[in-house]
């Protein structure tokens, strides 16, 4: 568990205590079991686990898009005036009828921020996301990677203290994905929001995160929490180090059993 430099307990953005989630309907699905997590403010947590283990459900519960069946979710950010969390999903994150500037400013528009202020903030994050010059373009005029950068820039522009991302780079080709990983780290280092990012990629979790929460096959439990030893600011060159290769192998060794178990469940 991460602690502050003084050795005192860090401030937590989110805490979950014995969170369970059961979906009832035609089929009853026990999606999450006894999830206990403490996410320090300003930390970058990646969640990995086999398909169907409840990663998205956990993210949605943290973001208050879904209720837990039992257990407690403590959101220590909720007293702030802005929305607690901004979301980035794999696809469909941008409005096709808005241009880039309007898309990035949308969250602040909804929060009632004045036009001048929200556009100024939007232009700042558009520039940081490498989209300067495209303010008036519409999403259909841009590449998939650029569209996802709009969604990420908007999430940073909202002023929300946390960012919840569900496979935000999952739909991108390998090269664009690598560039976007770099960009995401760079943006986050500018403004250290509390980030929770769901990914299927062990490499991505190691490149981006401070910690990796590894989940077991359904009903999803926390199998292990791994501290990522690579420092900040982080260069993507860590991927070439023996430490990276060793950690990737260890995580895969542990995850492999869960992936096999999830295939038997399917
Ligand atoms: N609204 C829902 N109603 C019923 N069952 C649901 C609902 N949402 C999710 N589930 C079930 O809960 C389980 C966990 O789903 P979830 O989407 O959280 O998994 P995941 O780990 O994000 O999967 P993936 O990696 O494939 O995206 C799955 O078995 C899924 O079918």
UniProtKB/TrEMBL annotation:
SUPFAM superfamilies: P-loop containing nucleoside triphosphate hydrolases. It comes from the Bacteria. The keyword Nucleotide-binding applies. It holds the Pfam family ABC_tran. Residues 14-238 form the ABC transporter domain. Signal peptide: none annotated. One of its GO terms (molecular function) is ATP binding. Keywords: ATP-binding, Nucleotide-binding, Transport. Coiled coil: none annotated. CDD domains: ABC_NrtD_SsuB_transporters. This is ABC transporter ATP-binding protein.
């Amino acid at each position: 568990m991460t602690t502050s430099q003084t050795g005192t307990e860090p401030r937590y953005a989110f805490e979950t205590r014995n969170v369970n989630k059961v979906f009832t309907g035609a089929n009853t699905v026990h999606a999450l079991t006894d999830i206990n997590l403490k996410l320090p403010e300003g930390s970058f947590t990646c969640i990995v686990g086999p398909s169907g283990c409840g990663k998205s459900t956990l993210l949605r519960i943290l973001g208050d898009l879904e209720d837990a069946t039992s257990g407690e979710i403590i959101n220590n950010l909720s007293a702030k005036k802005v929305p607690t969390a901004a979301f980035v999903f794999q696809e469909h994150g941008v409005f096709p009828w808005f241009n880039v500037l309007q898309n990035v400013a949308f969250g602040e528009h909804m929060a009632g921020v004045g036009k001048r202020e929200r556009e100024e903030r939007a232009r700042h994050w558009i520039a940081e996301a490498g989209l300067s010059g495209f303010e008036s373009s519409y999403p259909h005029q841009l590449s998939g990677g650029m569209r996802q950068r709009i969604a990420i820039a908007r999430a940073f522009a909202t002023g929300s203290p946390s960012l919840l991302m569900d496979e935000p780079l999952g739909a991108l080709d390998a090269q664009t994905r690598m560039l976007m990983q770099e960009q995401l780290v760079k943006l986050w280092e500018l403004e250290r929001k509390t980030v929770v990012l769901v990914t299927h990629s062990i490499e991505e979790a190691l490149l981006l995160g401070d910690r990796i929460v590894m989940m077991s096959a359904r009903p999803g439990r926390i199998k292990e929490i791994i501290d990522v030893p690579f420092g900040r600011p982080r260069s993507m060159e860590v991927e070439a180090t023996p430490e990276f290769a060793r950690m990737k192998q260890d995580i895969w060794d542990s995850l492999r059993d869960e992936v096999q178990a999830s295939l038997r469940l399917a």
